Amino acid sequence: MSSEHSQGHDEHHQLSWWRTYVFATDHKMIGLQYGITALFFLLFGFCLMMLMRWQLAYPGQPLPVIGKWLGSANMPDGVMLPEFYNQLGAMHGTIMVFMGIVPLAVGAFGNYIVPLQIGAADMAFPRINMVSYWAFFVGGVVMLTSFFIPGGAASSGWTSYTPLADIATTGQTFWIIGMVCLITSSLLGAVNFITTIIQLRTKGMTFMRLPFFVWAQFVTAFLLLLAFPPLEAAAILQLMDRIAHTSFFLPSGLVVSGQPLEISGGGSVLLWQHLFWFLAHPEVYVLILPAMGVIAEILANNTRRPLSGYKSLVYSVLFIGFMSFIVWAHHMYLTGMGTTISAFFQATTMIISIPSVIILTVFFLSLWGGSIRFTIPMLFALAFLPMFGIGGLTGLPLGLNITDIPLHDTYYVIAHFHYIVAPGTIFALFAGIYFWFPKITGRRMNDVLGHIHFWPSLICMNLIFMPMFIQGLAGVSRRLYDGGAEYAHAQGTLHLNVLISWSAWILAIFQLPFIFNLIWSLFKGPKSNDNPWESTTLEWATPTPPPHGNFVKIPEVFRGPYEYSLPGAKTDFAPQCQQIVT
Amino acid sequence: MWGLPDNAAAHGAEIDFVMLLFHILMLILFIGWGIFFLVALVRFKKTSHPKADYHGIRSHFSSAVEIAVAIIEIILLAAFSIPFWAKQVNAFPNRKDALEVRVIAEQFAWNIHYPGPDGIFGKTDIQLIDKQSNPLGIDQSDPHAKDDFVTINQLHLPIGRPVIIYLSSKDVMHCFSLPIMRVKQDIIPGMSIPVWFVPTKIGNSEIGCAQLCGLGHYRMKGFLTIHTQEEYDKWLAEQSSQSESSGEDSFWN
């Protein structure tokens, strides 16, 4: 009812510039705000990493030109200090996860696409949606500001393990305040997504007719809603430790640099880790599930046939959602865990790998019998499959504690989760951008530039992360300022750092065609019709770009989301909102 | 073996074996999926298969693969991982048969506290800590402390005898890593966590810190020396006599 109301009402009335572009309540504008901000943060986080890669490839050597701009507190004479390296490391992780991928996958794609795919005029709570974006924005600004305060940004890793984080410089306080804003943003968003998906589905859009992307966003929203509050609480406890001199995470008897620490003590170091990972493991699925949702849409569209096992996908994603809450302590096998507890967490970890295998299998099987179009979104989606496969498989030896002993905190871990998040999730998000760009802007992106973006990116991603498995197996620890140059056992694999770093910088160069393509196509790209990919789901049934209120006429849904090549139909796609297939 | 560090511990071969099993499993799955993937892409590209099938493959082969993966995971878990943890991490050798050492980590050094010939660690008190002369705050009034000695970044052990190392930290979290001993254990402030292993090779290697502990984390390196029993006894005698003759000032090795 509310959707009908808002549609009839809003179409006739012009909003001010501020209400349209800045304090917007339209889910599409908020989605775009999220998208642009998140892409900026992704680029920024990537730049931090490229700086670190200089230090790792050429430890202690001055960085030409750029080094001098970064200030003598960070890089005197262009040589990076360990202080700065640790800041870059902590902030790369924080920015990529909380300010890049989650806002892009959930805030941008979720906001823009979910209401369209379920046939709604907007999100259930447009103003909460606006607050959610602005909380994210403020959190991002606080994080960025922390680079410019004395002592610099947070430097205790994105995990902010205590007591190191408790005694760290002021940057850590900024990190906490920034995180509280980002968490608040995610919580508001999650409530909105859950309500929207439950309440605002259009007539005929039953749960089992939801596009898989919406299912993925639905489960993701529950993960955010239930997993983030413990971290928000933990962050505030850590803030109290830092500014009010409580000892939530500080045990008695600490001596720092020969001086006993003036604290009451009695706190627990492991408490922080439990609270942190209780969020941060579900968070891993927050990073991957929306990506899988995007992949499902693009695979079905470009194979021109239904996914081989829609129900398997839905049940798997629900199962992953539940299980993701009881695997967190597999990040903590080496904290002195006994056999019983570690057996529990190993068992749950092996169990959660099964639905992931099922999802990947469904994707692979869906190719069989298709009529595959190698469009740019499809190339990224196809590359996602083996890349996610490598990331997932290499999680197995980390998930069993016997093999975790040598691999824990080595480059093997870095390679494992980057395979999932970089050529996995980020490729899926690129695929999504190429896929939905014509709907969002009314113009198509350039295919040649798309190829120039895709192929080198795929090669570079592998040249970056594959050697890290070798380094990890050799026992090289992560988070070392000199990349392990200090250690004898690392010597055999140090030369790989040069290859990795150059691959990272070349990867950056090949993002330029994408950025250019994005901006150029926005103004000069060939005009697109409403449904350029001949897709079935509801977002393609709107005018292009979708107006305020989205649909000219509220659509009714008659069939499942992926009815491609339906026997007896004239065209090879049967839109969800088309009553009779001719 | 395939890029792993040398193994010099009695339990290391088992870890390496499971590591190998895992990577074989991963390789088989990846190659299997990869072949299916490439065949599907070539066979079903638009030009060679212009009309898609509404019904895809009707085969239970993929379910069989999923079940096989689950079974292999259960085997690895139940036959290797859980028993290994129970016997190597959770259970400890008899203290009488083992050599006991304390490792107290701090930013950015490893203090290694030997109990001396009496085998009993002297009392420590943080009020007695002096950065130069008494980094661990050993209470010299305790009779058991008389023969104790402390080395910095130098861990010496005899071959073939179980060693139990009690890990603790003075300040922040560290992680005690001995790559060639297949030992890695987080050190949690406020806790004393034991690890044990049996060295099987004589030689020198390194102690690494594997948990970010601050600016000097990257150079928080120690040295591990495995001696024959005779050499070790000789080294021990030297250290103990130094400790007794020069009193409190000889903690720096």
What does this structure look like?
The complex is a heterodimer of chains A (582) and B (253). In chain A, 62% of the residues lie in helices and 1% in strands. Chain A is mainly alpha-helical and 582 residues long. Chain A has a single domain (2-13, 23-251, 266-541), classed as Cytochrome c oxidase-like, subunit I domain (Cytochrome C Oxidase, Chain A). In chain A, a hairpin with a 2-residue loop joins strand 1 and strand 2. Chain A is globular and about 80 Å long. In chain B, a hairpin with a 4-residue loop joins strand 6 and strand 7 (183-187). Chain B is elongated, with a radius of gyration of 26 Å. At the A-B interface, helix 5, strand 1, helix 9, helix 11 and helix 12 of A face helix 1, helix 2, strand 7 and strand 9 of B.
Tally of individual helices of chain A: 18
- Spans of chain B with pLDDT under 50 lasting ≥5 residues? 245-253
Structural class designation of chain A: mainly alpha
Low-confidence sequence ranges of chain A: 1-11
The CATH architecture of chain A can be given as: Up-down Bundle
Q: Which series of helices and strands of chain A comes N to C?
A: HHHHHHHHEEHHHHHHHHHH
Number of domains of chain A: 1
Note the run of SSEs of chain B as H and E: HHEEEEEEEEEEH
Widest beta sheet: strand line-up of chain B: 3-2-1-5-8
Q: Give average pLDDT of chain B, whole number.
A: 91
Which percent bin holds the helix content of chain B?
A: 25-40%
In whole angstroms, the N-to-C terminal distance of chain B is: 35 Å
What is the number of E strands of chain B? 10
* Strand percentage of chain A: under 5%
Strand order of the largest sheet of chain A: 1-2
Instruction: Please give the radius of gyration of chain A in angstroms.
Output: 24 Å
What would the CATH topology of the largest domain in chain B be?
A: Immunoglobulin-like
